[in-house]
Design a protein that fits this description.
The protein is an alpha+beta fold. The protein has helices at residues 2-11, 26-34, 74-77, 86-89, 107-158, 193-211; strands at residues 15-19, 45-49, 54-55, 69-73, 96-98, 165-172, 177-184, 216-218, 222-224, 227-234.
């Protein structure tokens, strides 16, 4: 947007500005500079307050003050007098050539600042959303691998059945954490921490060693009704998709 804004400003016609003297009226300035009493109504004729670097609204032209400047677009000035007779007699009155882009703060710069701030905020929001999405994917991938490796010995030991246990994943990307919830399949009693805490803790540790992903750490299993809750946290930045 900064490039787009700079383009029109660079291509805009230049203003030639003349100091307003005591007793000047906007009509007299218009006649003097353009040979037309109505030119001051055009966009190419503006009154500038150098102290604030802002153009005065045309509705306030009835009272103009010495020290302000009457600025006329060069093409409009060409229809009248390019150099008023009084300017050579007083060097301080010589015209100053300026462009809209050099008179700050002006509308373009305010708009650019506002838009830049909005774009930066949107980019930050987008980056945060993408980061949380990446964390969620990494947690789900690791959780699925954890369940698969935890269940593998049970399937091999008891024969290939549809499932050796029930499993659910609770993912909280904003907390960079994951709960792996395990429960025995129908007709079985493992895993549970009431009767087999040592075995559950051993299997959880075994799975973490097999997966060997140091971005994650595993907490102590605990009972959650009929489920075993195994808390897992992501402790380092996500640089790639995790999991097996």
């Amino acid at each position: 947007m900064a490039v787009a804004a700079a383009g029109p400003a660079a291509a805009a016609p230049r203003f030639v500005c003349y100091p307003v003297a005591a007793g000047d009226s906007v009509t007299a300035l218009s006649v003097r500079l353009t040979r037309s009493s109505r030119s001051w109504r055009e966009a190419g004729f503006q009154i500038l307050d150098p102290a604030s670097a802002k153009f005065i609204p045309k509705a306030q032209y009835r009272r103009i003050h010495p020290g302000w400047q009457a600025c006329v677009v060069e093409t409009l000035l060409a229809r009248g007098v390019a150099r008023p007779p009084y300017q050579d007699a007083a060097p301080a009155r010589r015209p100053v050539v300026v462009s809209p882009g050099s008179m700050a703060p002006m509308g373009w710069w305010s708009l650019m600042t506002l838009c830049s701030g909005a774009i930066a905020a949107l980019l930050l929001i987008q980056m945060q959303a993408e980061r949380e999405a990446a964390i969620a994917r990494a947690l789900r991938t690791f959780g699925a691998a954890f369940v698969r490796e935890f269940e593998r010995p049970l399937i091999e030991e008891r024969g290939r059945r549809p499932a050796a246990l029930r499993a659910e994943l609770s993912v909280r990307p904003h907390r960079r954490s994951l709960d792996v919830l395990l429960a025995p399949a129908r007709g079985r009693n493992y895993p549970n921490v009431a009767d087999h805490r040592a075995n559950v803790e051993y299997d959880a540790g075994r799975v973490m060693v097999l997966l060997d992903d140091r971005r994650f750490i595993c907490g102590r299993p605990e009972a959650r009704g009929e489920w075993v809750r195994i808390p897992i946290r992501l402790v380092s930045d996500v640089q790639k998709e995790g999991g097996a």
